[in-house]
Structure formats: structure tokens, C-alpha cells
Amino acid sequence: MNRAFIAALESIYPPQRLLTRDVELLPYESDALTAFQTKPAAAVLPDSDDEIIATVRLCHEHAVPFVARGSGTSLSGGSLPIADGLIIGLNRLNRIKKLDPQQRIAVVEPGVINLSITEAAQPYGLYYAPDPSSQSICTIGGNIAFNSGGAHCLKYGMTSNHVLGMKVVLADGTVTQFGSESIEGVGIGPDLVGLFVGSEGLFGIALEITVRLMPQPELYRTVLAAYDDLGRAGDAVSMVVASGLLPGAMEIMDRLAIKAAEASVKAGYPDAEALLIVELEGETLQVNAEFEQLRGIIEASGAFEIRVANSEEERARIWKGRKGAFSAVGRLSPDYIVQDGVVPRSRLGEALVEIGALKEKYGLDVANVFHAGDGNLHPLILYDGRAAGALEKAEALAGEILALCVNLGGSITGEHGIGMEKRDYMPAMFSEEELDIMQALRRAIDPLEIANRGKMFPGGEAPALKQHGMHPLEKAGVISRE
Amino acid sequence: MATAIEKCVHCGFCLPACPTYSLLGEEMDSPRGRIYLMKNVLEETLSAADAQPYIDRCLGCMACVPACPSGVEYGDLLVSYRMLQERERQRPPLDALARRLVIETLPYPKRFRLAAQTGRIGKALRGALPEAFASMLNLLPEKLPSPLPAPPVLPARGELRAKVALLPGCVQQALAPEINYAAAQALAANGVEVHSPPKAGCCGSILLHVGAEQQAIELARRNFGQFPDDIDAIITTAAGCGSGIHDYELLFKDQPDADRAAAFARKVTDFSAFLSSLGMRERTGFAHERRVVYQDACHLLHAQGQQSEARALLMQIPNLRLLPIADAGMCCGSAGAYNIDQPAIAAELGRRKVASILAAEPDLVVSGNIGCITQLRQQLKSTGNPLPVRHIAEVLWEACAGSE
Amino acid sequence: MTARAPGSIAEIQSLVQNSDRVHVVGKGSKTALHNQTDGAAIVDLSGMSGILEYQPSEYTVTVGAGGLVRDLEAALKQHGQYLPCDPLLPGAASIGGTVACNLAGPRRFRYGGVRDFILGAQLVDGMGRAFRVGGKVVKNAAGFDLSKFLVGSLGRYAIMTELTFKVFPDAPCFRSLRFNYERLDDALSAIFFINQSAYELDALDLIPAADGWSLLARLAGFQESLPQRVERFAAGMERDTAPSDIATLAESPNLWDPLAELSGEFLVKAALAPKQIPAFDRMIAGARRRYGVGGNIAWLATDDVEALAAALRNCGLRGLCLRGAVHSAVIGAPADDALAQRVKQVLDPEHKLV
Questions:
Q1: Is there contact between B and C if contact means ≥3 C-beta pairs under 8 Å?
Q2: d(Cα A364, Cα A386) in Å, to the nearest integer?
Q3: What are the chain A neighbours of C168 within 8 Å (beta carbons)?
Q4: If you average pLDDT over residues C303-332, what whole number do you get?
Q5: Which of A326, A357, B93, C93 sees the fewest Cβ atoms within 10 Å?
Q6: Looking at residue A104, which CATH number applies to its domain?
Q7: Is B2-88 in CATH node 1.10.1060.10?
Q8: Hey, are the CB atoms on A126 and C196 less than 8 Å from each other?
Q9: Could you tell me if A348 and A440 lie in one domain?
């Protein structure tokens, strides 16, 4: 990063919003995937659209790569900095610019936290539907980059289905606007919103986003069923689907994930091999009718215990364990990899058996958490990074799980995106020609490949893998690990 | 310390809970970022001096602890790290002087009174002093109240239900002696015999908070043996004392007296927690409706997990309406000696807190901590708002005695 | 020029490679799209049809793009399922044409439009390359989402040969109601009331009536609960939106066909926000219209397409002309197509696809 570029940044940003010292940059070197660490050359914290646009144009002019970053919660290393590149931290752009409950829309800045939209809409009986587990902290900008999902995707879709319009700055500095406040979004002409959402920050930065809000369901009926066999929980999901019901969410956790969640939030889950959470939502009369049907199915599915949430607190408790499950695994293991693959729902059982076999083969523990309604698996591979070769072994296991997903007709990512982590698995899913076309598209928008360089596409310089060693203080006997 | 660092999976769930992150929006000023900086310092890839400003800016409010799904014990980490660093730290002369003043005066009511007298003279000179001094002076009231010593033993009224001793506290004794006085009266009214041991002093928590380990140990040790053995609890009326004393285990690790410290810590209970578990016997209430906002002290809410105790007491009082406020769990910026160390951030947090309190349109603010009370009074005063801020012990005494 | 009907992807590829300009027709139901194709090779996709993969329990279906929407809907119905985006011209249109023109019908109100139900596609682009975009599972975040880009693309970036959709179980029972209002503002207020309520409607259209405006609403669900829900909804509407008249309507094929009563030389679809309706409606005096999907889509019929185009332009709106002799099918305000142009440059740099 040359002096002239820094000087130009200095003319845009006051010193406290232009970070260049080691101590200021170190905390930016990872997102929520700490296996990768790269220290950026500088970071800026813009306060306005104009600052972002000016910064992107500068980057283009000086051929400096940049990474836009919200709260840094990507689980695929999507906001990993680029060495010699710039971090554009968007978390200060957190204003909800417009809330129109009558038309059920909100216009927000990219640094707005996902849950904040729901909090703002709640007094009007509305909410923002995509609910990734990190919704209390992840930003809309990041949700757009990675087309984030959540537990309710089967019925209401992912981020892409809830964005109606946006103003963006493309990587070459072009500012463009598409979509509208109509529920149709773009409506006439190719759906540019759909193309931009999920582009992993490779096209540019969203500056202003129009999202659609949904009416809060009048009633939720949430049931928790415990099984002594993981396969049986999977079969229960198939039975629910076959019945013609369309639950808002269906989630499965296995024994290890239950243990972690229990240790973290003490949700009071039953001691089981597998837990299934099914949630119906909608108009009271309709949901109650559906619930009778659901109860019959669950009772016939071989669950040894069935709990029905009878209050909002009980429902929140059921979900709290599930939502905190990823991070809670930090209590069970010093390190873990969260995987994110999709299989056709009917092949869930097969996938779980295979994962079980892989677990044995590698001698590693795997906790399974998944959105069963849409076949989205989240195996958490537990390993101890301090043991030599453990990370590599865990990654090899993760790779086999992804290959399994593709072989079963699914996808290598349901919602976390490719980012850094899955670049090398792209060829398993796309042909060389398909990858070439995507690359060409990226270059048509960003000829210098400066926007989030190194993500999504296979190859590129290998990032530094985290290697654990003993702390110097540990070596000196000052500290110890229990 | 390493365990706490290893436990952090960098998920970011702590970010929205952190007052400095919400104010400054930069990763270094978040719990996750600070843990990362501490890790780098411990691994010797970053100098402690570089990391220090960001560690110093941490309020120690512990809001990140309940927010953490991985169970990182941030409090333990911060205290251990501060103790480790204070051993080696070089401060600029003026900072060192200010800090010396904090260490040498705040824990000692008499010295603090003396300094306060000087301080009042100093107020005239405020403009000429560095910021750190000026902020200390701002904290001082126009006039210090006269000492209001509680009797060594205040007998229980009516049937005797429990026997307790009051921890005198330090700054609070000089700034607001009426708090412990009221606490003793409220407890006695509820059938509790209240001892105020004449030789008991500061528990050392405020020094632990700033990492002055040795001085903290000395002060803590002075208190052992000052309290009668047959009491049911040692009551604190300052949140920071309660949570600091619960860190004695860490403070006394590998020290002589570790057992005595642990035994002492086990007896210590916050005023509201004690009274709410005992159950209020007297509650005459107020003659007219009082609209009350309860201000959570971080060291009660986050450090000791006390969300409902004080609220339960207040809600039992006839004619008292408890009002919810936005961001109730966010620190008011007082945080022990923080408003002295980091005046600008403390003031901004204070402004935000006052704004969310005023939005609820209360006619009284109640808190369980002298730090919060001082901070809120000062913020209200600077906006010219006459809204009273009182300690819960005073409000309960008044409500129990039925004197409006 | 006569149309050629290739029966395989390879044939389409060679056709594209060996032509200067290529124009795709599905079933030709949207005549306005085929006006400016002089000299282009006409590709009739009828040969690329049929249901290729359908496992009802997966909630996904993969079909040939040239097939009739009607046939797909019939296949889904056998398993109690449907396409919730509710293609607009089910009787006549091809599936590819529905995607290319983004034509969703009234039931789009409940779960979403074409963009919300397309999962993946097999394409031949303007360079004759055959490739896949998206996936065949209900959730997928790998690679750029070009499948959504196809929605509304008018076949000008790539030829769709195969499409995968998400499908849902359909409701067994329906009930329709009509609420009349004297003023447009009152009818819109009723829409806003519904938008913030918990009533789950299957469809909601706003239609000009002889003496004001009608809101046509439909509920769908189980036999057991539907009558009660309808009653509760009607009571809520009566109490909170003060309609001048409420009527229960018998379900009939025409009731929810928004085009059934729109006669005119030109038929146009436009996307708009409900709050834009009053200003727009004042400008299109001569047009027959229906504001569907809670007032988010305008279906318009007129004999004076120039006047309609001007009205759209004035309101910053765009429309797609489906029927009638127009120079360009897209009318109204110009689009900011900076991003679309980049895609064109990659998929069809020689502008073969028209």
C-alpha cells in the first residue's frame, strides 16, 4: 500500500477512523472463522455513503484490494482481510433510514444489525424474516454478501428473498441503483437484486438496502421431540413434509450438540440422541388446526418425549439452545470447524450415516446441528489445534462431508457462503466452464479484482493457517490450561 | 488466563453488549478485540504498551459475560491481565500521579474527605489542570456531607429474623454516608440486627479494578477478623464491592490467607439480594404514585447476575410504579474509577443513559450503587434536570417507615 | 421466417453458434415480445419440455423450459402441491416465458414471486456455451445467483432450457370475499390495515368498480378452520376499514384471473408500490386496470400505449408490454442498467440474443 494512497485516505478520514497501527489492525485479522488470519494494511471506518464511494474509487485508482466488513461474523472467512489490502468497516453505518409499516418495508444502511430491523418493526406487528443464528450481531451488509439464511428458510427463503432494492457502489466505483419499494423488487428487467445478493462482496458494496418486512405470526406452536436414534428424527421430518404441512422451521440437533447447548444456556433439553424442533406459525385458528395434525405425526414418529412450548418464554428457551449451539461448542472443544452443506431432504438419513462413518474413520468428534426442513447440515468438527496435524485432519474430514453433499445431489454451502473456506470445493460443484463464466462476470464488474480478492474462486495465494503452539508464558510455566 | 483466551471462538456475540464498541465501533474496543490483543501481548507478538489504551478503555462492566455463548470468563481474564501488566507498567508522570491519587485516597474516607476539601479549592483552577484531574474534581459534590456513623449495633425491630454486618465501603462513606445509614435502618425495620464494625474498611475492590494488586490485597486482609463470627451475612450497599470481593479467590491465588479470603467472600451479599431473599416484612409504601426507573449497576447485573432482586423489592412497594427503559443493561459510564480514567467515554455513556431514563418520564431514579448514582446525578445536573437519584436502601427505608 | 424447434441442448448450442441473431419463443402467448425480431433465427423451445425430476417430498421440481405451465401445474396438483408464485398465464404460457417475463399472478401475495421460487437453471448463452446456474435443492449459497437474474431477463442474456423450482403443498380449501370502498384512499388504507395484521391471505387484488373500488381477498386453508377464519377476517375488516359493502364470492375460474376482464389492444404489466397508485391512477384515465398482489403489480390494458408509457415515465415506473404492436416491449422510465450491461458483456457480447 503506497504512501500516496494512505495520504488520499487521510484526506477522507480523521485519524481515529483510519487505522494503520499494528495494535489497531490485529483485532481485524480474523472473522468468526479463526483458522484464517491475515492482517490488513489499513482499515477505515466510514460514516457515510460518500466516504464509502470515495474509498472504493481510491482503491480502484490505486489498485488496492479491499474487504467490506460488518461485524466480522462470517463462518466461511468471507471477511478475512487481504494482506496489503484495506478493510472498510461498515458497522458505523447503522441507521434505519425509513420504516414504512403500511407498505411493509424498511430502508437501511449496510451496518444495521439484522435483529435491529425486527426490533424497530415490532411495534407495528412486523418483523424481518431471515434469522441467521448470529442475528443479534451480524449486519445486513454481510447478510447480503452471503445470502444468509437461518432456521426459517424453507417457508420464507433467504436474505435474497427479502431484499427489494439497493443502491450499490461497484468495485470500479460505479454507483448504481436497482429494485424498488414494490414487493416485486426489480419487477421489469433482469433481477439484479437477486444477482447481487450472495455475490460475497466480489461485486462491490451495498450502500442502502430496501428490505421487506413480514407480519408477525399471530401464533407460534413449537414442539420439541426427543429420540433415541438420529435416523428416527430424520424420518419424522419426512413424515411431516409428506403430510402436506409447511412448518416455519424444522431443526435437528444430535447428542453432542445438545450437550453443548445445555452447557451454554441450560435449556433443560431432554437427554437424547437427537432432538427435533418443529415450529408452526401463522393465524391462530389455522395453526391450531395444523398443530393437531403435527402432534399426531410426532406421536407416531417414535419420540420418547414430546414437549410443547406453552408460552413465549418456553419457546424462547427451546430456540436459545439451538441458536447458541455453534458458539457453545467452544465449551466442549478448544477448536472446531462449522461445516455448512446441503443434501436433498430425502437423503438426510443417508448423509448422517455417512458422516457417522467418517467420524470413525478420522477419530474426530462431530456435533450435528441442522435445518432439517431444507436439508441444510451444519456438522461441527471438533479438534484440538494444539495437537500436530489435527487441523489438517479436521479439514480433510470437512472436505469429505462436502464431497458427500455434492454426491447426494446437494450443495457445498446452504448459507455460510464459499468465502475463504470452501474455495477449493467449488470445482466439485461447478464445471470449469461454469467457473470461467463466473470469473468473467466478476472481471466485467471488477477488472482489477480488488473487491474481496481471494474469496469464492479456487486458487489464489494460500492464506496463513492458524497453528497452535504453547504460549510463551505457558512454556515458562506462568500459566496453564486446565 | 490462557483457558479464557482459548475459549473465545471469535463469534462476535459480545459486540452488541459492549458499551465501548457501541460507542466507538472499532474492533479493538470490543471484548473480542481486547481478548485478541491480550492474547497477542501474552504471546509477545504485540507490546503491552500498545495494547494498553484499549484495555484501559474497558469499563469492566461484564456485560459481555452473559452475552458469551462459549462461556469465556472475561472478568477473570481482565483482572488477571491487569494485575500482570500493572507489575511492569510505566505510566506518563501525570497519569501516574492521578493514579497514585486514586490508589492513595479513594479507599480511605478520611483522606478522601481531605482531598475533597483541597479539590473544592481546586475546582476554581480546573481549567488549568490536565483532563484526568479535572474529571476527578467534577465528581466531587459542592459540599461534602457530614459523617453519619451508624451505631455499632442497631437492634432489630420486632421479631429478630437475621443478624448481619455492614461493609462500610470507601468513597461512599465520604460522599454518601446516608446510604449505609438508611440500609441499616431498612434492615432493622425488617427484623435484622445490624452491626457496623468500627474498624472495618475498604474491601480493596476499587484497587483490584484498576489492577493495583498488592494494595488491594493489603486492604482486603485488614478486614478479616473485623466482623463478628455469628452473623448471617456481610452486607454491601455498593455493587462494585460485592463483585470485587467475589474475585478474592483470584486475588488471593497462591497467597497466604486464601482460605480466610474465601470464607469472607462467601458471607458477602448485596443489600437487595439479601433483603429480597429474606422477604420484606414492612412495606407501608408511598402516599402518592411514584414513577421509578431502576438503574442496573453492571456489577450487580452482569458480574453477579442480579437482574430481578432489586426490582422484586421495588415492585412490592405500594404506589411505586416501576418503568422499563431501553438498553437497561448498558453501562452508565461510572464503572468504578472509570469516570476518572476515561472521562470522555464515561460522559457519553452517561448522556445516553440519562436520555433513555428520561424517555420513561420517571420522577425518581433508584440504583444499588454509589458509582451509578454519582454518575447519573452529575449527568442530570449538567442538563439542569432536577430528577432525584437515590440508593435503593434509602427508598426502601422510606417506604418501610411510611414517611413520604 | 419459420421457427426451428431444437430437441436438445446441443442443437440449441449449434443454432446459436451458427446464427447472427437468435430469438426465442415459448408458446408465443406474449405477442408483444416478438415484434422486433427481423432477421433473427426463431427458436421454438416446445421440444425442451416435460417434467425431468419431481420428488414431491423434496418440494422441488425440474422441468423443460419449453413446457406449458398448465402441464406443470397439473402434475403438481396430483401431489397436492403448487407453484406459489402463481404464473399469470397458466393456460397458454411456457414455463421459460413465465420466468423470462417475470409473470406472477395474484397468489404471489402469500409466499412470493418467480424470483422467490426459482432455484436453478440449465442455460445456453449468447456464445453457445451450455452451463448450469443455481442448484436443485431448496437452499444453496454457492456461486453467483444467476438463476434469479434470469427472472425478467426476456431471454436476452441466455436461453433457458431447463428450470428447477421450489414448490409447496397447496391448501385444500379457498374462500373469496369482496369489500367495496367509495374512495381509492379508503381501499388503500384497508390494504395497509391488512399489511399490519396477522390475517394470512392467499391473494389480495384492488379493482376499480362502478361506484368506487373493490378489494378482492382470498383465504386458503383447512376445512376445519377456514369458515371461522373467514368470519373473523370479515368482521375485522368491517370494524377497522369500514367498507361500504361486503360480499362472499363463489370461486370461479375468472374470479382470480386478473386479465379476464382487461380488454384492449395493449396489455402491460408494471411493478409499483401501493403508495404510488393514487398518482399513477390519476394519469391513466383511459386504461382498464387491476392492481394485484396487495397493490404491488399493475395489470393494464389500453388502446393508447403511448399515453400509458408517458404515465409510467412520469411516475418513475416501468412496464412490460405483453400484447400489442410495440417497438420495445419495455416501456416507461429508463432503467439503470450498469450491472445488467456487465452481465450482457459476459454472456452475450455479440448481442445475438434478441
A1: no
A2: 14
A3: 246
A4: 94
A5: B93
A6: 3.30.465.10
A7: yes
A8: yes
A9: yes
Boundaries of every domain in chain B:
2-88, 282-401
Query: What's the confidence (pLDDT) of residue C88?
Result: 92
Distance from the Cα of residue A428 to its chain's centroid:
21
Does A463 fall in a domain?
A: no
End-to-end, the C-alpha distance of chain B in Å comes to 51
Q: Which residue stretches of chain A have pLDDT < 70?
A: 460-482
Residues 6+ apart with CB under 8 A from C90: C69, C70, C73, C105
What is the C-alpha separation between A88 and A42, in angstroms, rounded? 9
Which chains are adjacent to chain C, needing at least 3 Cβ pairs under 8 Å? A
Domain total in chain A:
4
Residue B142, pLDDT score: 65
Residues A207 and A294 in one domain: no
Site from C272, C339, C353 to mutate, A interface, most A CB atoms within 10 angstroms = C339
- Residues in chain A closer than 8 A to B3 (CB atoms): 481-482
Does A32 contact B10 at a Cβ distance shorter than 8 Å? yes
- Chain C contact for A469, CB < 8 A? no
The alpha-helical segments, DSSP class H, found in A228-283 are 230-242, 255-265
Contact B2, B42 (CB under 8 A): yes
Domain end among A328, A354, A381: A328
Residue C328 forms contact with A (CB below 8 Å): no
The predicted-structure confidence for A48-70, as pLDDT tens digits, reads as follows 999 999 999 999 999 999 999 99
DSSP secondary structure, A308-362, as one string: E--SHHHHHHHHHHHHTHHHHGGGT-SEEEE--EE--GGGHHHHHHHHHHHHHHH
Tens of pLDDT, residues B363-393? 999 999 888 998 999 899 988 899 999 999 9
A31, A45, A136 member nearest B16 (Cβ): A136
Considering the domain architecture, whether residues A124 and A61 belong to the same structural domain is answered as no
Residues of A in contact with B8 (CB under 8 A): 330
A211 plus A104 within the same structural domain: yes
Torsion-angle region of A248 (φ positive above 0: left; ψ -120 to 50: alpha; else: beta):
alpha
- What residues does C81 pair with on adjacent strands? C169
Q: Could you give the ipTM of this predicted complex?
A: 0.96
Note the pLDDT of residue B118: 64
Residue of C nearest to A245 (CA): C169
| Residue B403 burial (CB count, 10 A) | 10
User: Which pTM value belongs to this model?
Assistant: 0.87
- In this predicted structure, which of A28-32, A390-394, B104-108, C157-161 has the lowest mean pLDDT? B104-108
Which DSSP symbol is given to C334? P
pLDDT 10s digits, A199-225: 999 999 999 999 999 999 999 999 999
- Does A226 share its domain with A305? yes
Say how many CA atoms lie within 13 Å of B30 toward its Cβ: 27
Q: Are residues A227 and A178 part of one domain? A: no
Helix axes B93-105, B109-123, angle to 10 degrees: 130
- When scoring B5, B8, B9, B73 by the number of chain A Cβ atoms within 10 A, the one with the most, hence best to mutate, is B9
User: Tell me, what's the pLDDT at A480?
Assistant: 38
Residue A343 belongs to domain with CATH number: 3.30.70.2740
Domain-embedded: residue A460: no
| Interface A:C, Cβ pairs < 8 A | 277
Chain C's closest residue to A348, CA to CA, is C58
Residue A107 within any structural domain of the chain:
yes
In tens, the pLDDT along B40-65 reads: 998 889 999 999 999 989 988 889 99
Mean pLDDT over each residue of chain C, to the nearest integer: 94
Q: Do A471 and B43 touch (CB under 8 A)?
A: yes
* CATH classification (class only), B282-401: alpha beta
Boundary-marking domain end, from A35, A65, A89: A89
- Residue A274: give the domain boundaries: 219-328
Q: Are residues A127 and A32 in the same domain?
A: no
Cross-chain Cβ contact A185/C139 below 8 Å = no
Binding-face residues of A in 16-75 toward C, CB within 8 A: none
